[in-house]
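For homework, think about our next protein:
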Amino acid sequence: MITAAAAGTWTLGDLEVNRIGFGAMRLAQSGPALVPGAVPRDRGQAVAVLRRAVELGVNHIDTAAFYFSPLRSANELINRALSPYPDDLVIATKVGQPRDPSGAWLPHARPEQLRGLVEENLRQLGRDHLDLVNLRVVGAGPVAERFGALAELRTAGLVRHLGLSNVLPHHLAEARAIAPVVCVQNMYGLGVRPEQDPFVELCGEQGVAFVPFYALAASGRQYGAADGAEHPLVTEVARAHGVSPAQLRIAWTLHRGPHVLAIPGTGDPAHLAANVAAGALRLSGDELALLDALHGGG
């Protein structure tokens, strides 16, 4: 059995995690994520997948209070499945732009609203502090005031480590001038936003983890959509290793640097095992050159 340990480890602040984690975004619903009226996923299946993920060595789970569908909340499912939590489990959440009960996005939270959003995550997860909170940013405007509000919660002991989500390089510099930043979460993958490459490298140089979301997105398949054909080169290299294109995409992401973490999410136990196994896949220099060329022209 291949476990998440096969991908190696990275340290988020003082918390060591396996580089293959689990993203909870689609845990609460079937079909496309973060849309109003999403179909709730079977509760028993979601709980079973979470427990299996931990059995497979996953010790980094990414979630948010705004990951919900009618009847289901990712945080509630995590609490039910995994509490009391294993000592080595790191749960990362994010705050910044909440959704109303119908699932519609609300305006970006003001600094004084962030404490309430952090406390909401604490209640749902059943924790007295959060391991990692990422500030989710919308737009290119300054983040100092909002990140500063989270830094105050870190000082108060409600939050252990801070990160950023959906940001630009200048946001990272602005935030690091206020408090340590342990990770950046941005959309990124093979052929997806290659303009992020310098930012990925910058994070590595500064010892900041880069955590791509939608890393499995191919052309026409972002945000969990099922349409869009896979690129023939991806299919060819995957077949040579006896793996799926999705596994190859995860492996390519991990090859971008030791600071790059993967958080693929699924509600399917078989897909979970395949995602974790992708951490053991090693690509040759020639294969990486071909895939990197595809990425740059993607």
